Amino acid sequence: TVPNERAKAVVSTQSTGISKELDMKSIEAISGVCKWFYKLARTPTLWQAACERIWSDLKSKDEPPNCSEFVSWRGMFINRPHLRFDGIYVSRIKYFREGEQTSNLCCTLQTVFYHRFFRFFSDGLVLGLNTTALPQQAVASLKDRTSANKEVMYGQYTINGDLISLVLFQRDFSSRRSTASMKLKPDRSFKVTLKLLNKQGKQSLQWVEYQVIVKRNGQITKNDIELEPPHFCRFVFGRVKSYTALSLGTV
Asked: Distance between the two ends of the chain, CA-based, in angstroms?
């Protein structure tokens, strides 16, 4: 058993200096141990600190805004759309294309499946991956900040309200020399804007804008991509337990 003073000290520390990497899902799991831990995990200051780490405009406020919509800090954390770092966002794309023409058949159709993945980190780093591989393989490729998968793209993101702006770059493997820092291709970038959604507690991302920027001979060309289905479907969040097994920051 954990002494009362020790358990209270842990919650007090988390509520005053909570980290973005703290898995609030684990806090919820603690509440199922017993009534005492349930009350401890429902401490308002703990959930208030978690909300303030995500939405900086909430600092110095005693009560959550929109009280009619969010009855508590915990209710805001669960129901207000926000970016999550304890898993990946995945979009499953399915479409049909013409196959090889044969003498016996007029035409054949092939069903093609592939996935888009985004993995966000609390310090502004984002990893992107388009692949036909199984989702389990993609989850493993995006577990660490430096992936061995050459198809993984790297970039930074910013948040403005419920909009997320990303700029992604492909990795540059043209140099055979091993360098300590990762090298990215500067001549081509991918600008993406996504909208945060939350429906019945389920986090998702919706496409808003997709732009390919090419730099060549001192000229910059911006190509806007039409966001038409089936290639631009909504991203659904999936929690990955192994992503929260180790924290690089102070939890």
From this structure: 22
Q: How many CB atoms lie within 10 A of CB 101?
A: 9
Q: If pLDDT is split at 50, 70 and 90, which confidence band does 106 have?
A: low
CA distance 135 to 89: 11
Residue for token pair 């002494």: 3
* Nearest CA-CA partner of 84 in 140, 131, 22, 165: 22
**Which DSSP letter does residue 199 get?**
E
User: If DSSP states are collapsed to H, E and C, what string results for 155-172?
Assistant: EEEEEECCEEEEEEEEEC
- DSSP one-letter code for 98: E
C-beta atoms surrounding 18 within 10 Å: 21
Yes or no: say if 135 and 115 are a contact pair by the CB < 8 Å rule.
Answer: yes
Instruction: Give the gyration radius of the chain's Cα atoms.
Output: 22
CA distance 59 to 44: 14
Tell me if 156 sits within 8 A of 124, measured CB to CB. Answer: yes
Pairing assessment for the beta strands 219-224 and 125-131 based on DSSP bridges: unpaired
More confident residue, 133 or 195: 195
Question: pTM for this one?
Answer: 0.77
